[in-house]
């Protein structure tokens, strides 16, 4: 008989990795990912322009079930907290890092996101790297002495990526395509160059491409051409 593959939470403690398999695989989980968009109002247009600001953190929510009644419900009953506390501890501060540990949720290599195309860069994944945002514990059965024996633990995981990981995945290192930018209140040429090139000192390329004589005066709502760097 084929052995059931267990979902596992891998914990990256400061000095070691810990593997915490769930007792029962979840029946479902929910992934939520969004993008923050800004509306740029330009007088005379029917609809504001939409400009991408940044991606929002992806979250994963799931319920985990725990039960220790197989060990009995009498005086020598095993508390279900021997299992649930392994999850609960993941929202506690690790003294050496002054923060909860980074984790990874694993179940199968065909985790959602494993088949995204190369058009979005190197963003395929086989797990969900995260920090535990919240743990809600509901204890539903107790021994006559009050020992908790059954629990439902609702876990919310928040995506975790370092800056280097994101730059490698998105391949943003080579601004080799012409882009456009709609001037907003407070924009400067160095700020625009910093956003598109990550090099504020290359603002002259933007100024030259748009024949801007006075770099200190930018008209709100104007489309600027952001040329590729040579």
From TrEMBL:
<feature type="domain" description="LysM">
    <location>
        <begin position="179"/>
        <end position="226"/>
    </location>
</feature>
<dbReference type="Pfam" id="PF01476">
    <property type="entry name" value="LysM"/>
</dbReference>
<dbReference type="InterPro" id="IPR018392">
    <property type="entry name" value="LysM"/>
</dbReference>
<dbReference type="InterPro" id="IPR045361">
    <property type="entry name" value="CIS_tube_prot_N"/>
</dbReference>
<dbReference type="Pfam" id="PF19266">
    <property type="entry name" value="CIS_tube"/>
</dbReference>
<dbReference type="InterPro" id="IPR036779">
    <property type="entry name" value="LysM_dom_sf"/>
</dbReference>
<protein>
    <recommendedName>
        <fullName>LysM domain-containing protein</fullName>
    </recommendedName>
</protein>
